[in-house]
Amino acid sequence: MSTPTRTRDEIAHTVRTAVADVIGTEPEEIGDDVSLVADYGVDSLELMDIGARLEKALDVHIEVRDLTLAETVGHAVDLLEERLRERS
Amino acid sequence: MTARDTARRIRVAITGIGVKCPAGTTLAEAHGTVLAAKSTASVVGHLVEADLPVPFACLVPPFDEEAYVTRREARQIDRATTLALCAAADAVSEAALPADLSRDRVGVQIGTGIGGLPSMEKAALDHGDRPIDMPVHTVPRSMSNAPASRIAMRYGFRGPCSTYSTACASGTTAIGEAARRIRTGELDAAVAGGVDAAVTKVIMGGFARMRALSTRTDAPHLASRPFDAERDGFVMGEGAAMVVLEPWDVAVARGARVYGEVSGFAENCDAFHIVAPHEDGTVAAACMRRAIADAGLRPADIVHVNAHGTSTLLNDRAEAIAVDRCFAGSPPPLTAVKGVTGHLIGGSGAVEAVLALACASAGAVPPVANTTKSPEAHLVDLVTGAPRPVPVGPVLSNSFGFGGHNACLVLTPPN
């Protein structure tokens, strides 16, 4: 099965939407430099929730290590872009 | 010196009340609806769609939930926890506990009969085929102690945080247990109450299969009629009520508004049948008498009775026999607010305790909604038609749960 190629913008939009849904805000509020832990106090369950949403939206498996590794939203998008590229 | 009751225990004051129930989203509003004996039952769309034999219930009217719960928190909690948190927020804000009160000495004591089953029902229906896709927060949302824990978390109350499950008596149990912890000096304050929000197709279907629910689908507002000859079952309701309890003297000394006193509490169990009450009413009568004695009172001191009165034949008949036994043939006026509110399961005991206290404080016993002619009229002094004026004085509030749980509170208005 071929995987649709996503642009970085598309991935970033998906990430911002997942984060915004979980922390109860709007995607526009979630910039690349936002830190989920420092800026929003996201707890481990919320992080798993964000991960579960991304796995579903992007049809990709995300390791717990990757979720905790990402320090900012921009970093998370970079990691996802890399994982998706590795897969295709 | 600390005010002690006749048994030299610390007296327990109610200094905050929060209500989110079908009769209203404030105590004053709910009190007004109950005095007007106005039923809140109506047809519920999603129950009709599910093709249930009982497509109606009593729901909490819409209110501004966003004033209490952020969008972020709302995503993680279910309706029962939301209603409990909103009611608790009202009670805590009204009580305005002193800032220097140690949070280690404040407890949370909550009763729920159904707990998180509605959330687990939804998870099973939505994700039963692929459980791996269920929401990450499914477990913390559906655990039965979620309401209590969320209240403790919000305010940083680090005292004992317990959840009681005695079915339809759960809210009464929780208030009684909280009062006990204040009385003994274990706690300096407690948030206590009950909640359930179980108007879902599977849970309603379960109660309907037992034929416990009224099937008066052509006239839902006439369905809940406790003690009436034409009753045919209870009407499911949802909602919560929470109180803040404190030692009486402390509350008075700091100038808090004191709604009244939790003066008596008793519990026991029929140990007879998993859902039916014992028809001779002896165990329930003993529970009432013990609660009254616990308040240092005699049955003749009770000014009115808030009956459990579910509008099921088995409950109402057994309760009437028990009341007759307790009061030895001279019962005070009796009402049952489930004619208005429906049956809130774990929420009912708490909602009724605060409504009973409001009615006792106002010296007016509300009429039972819809009830006109009762086969139990020779056993109880049923208030029907219009509110009955009574002297301001102690009220006995009964709750009886599936499983044989009996729980009774005595609430006394301030002098």
TrEMBL record, chain A:
The entry's keywords: Phosphopantetheine, Phosphoprotein
Organism: Streptantibioticus parmotrematis
Source taxonomy: Bacteria, Bacillati, Actinomycetota, Actinomycetes, Kitasatosporales
SMART domains noted in UniProt: PKS_PP
Cross-referenced Gene3D superfamilies: ACP-like
Protein name (database record): Acyl carrier protein
Carrier domain boundaries: 6-84
Pfam families the UniProt entry points to: PP-binding
Database matches in InterPro entries: ACP-like_sf, PKS_PP-bd, PP-bd_ACP, Ppantetheine_attach_site
Automatic annotation (TrEMBL), chain B:
InterPro entries for the chain: Beta-ketoacyl_synthase, Ketoacyl_synth_C, Ketoacyl_synth_N, PKS_Beta-ketoAc_synthase_dom, Thiolase-like
Domain Ketosynthase family 3 (KS3): residue ranges: 9-413
Superkingdom per UniProt: Bacteria
PROSITE patterns: KS3_2
Keywords assigned: Transferase
Keyword Ribonucleoprotein: no
UniProt xrefs under Pfam families: ketoacyl-synt, Ketoacyl-synt_C
Family designation: Belongs to the thiolase-like superfamily. Beta-ketoacyl-ACP synthases family.
PANTHER family given in the database record: 3-OXOACYL-[ACYL-CARRIER-PROTEIN] SYNTHASE, MITOCHONDRIAL, POLYKETIDE SYNTHASE-RELATED
Protein name: Beta-ketoacyl-[acyl-carrier-protein] synthase family protein
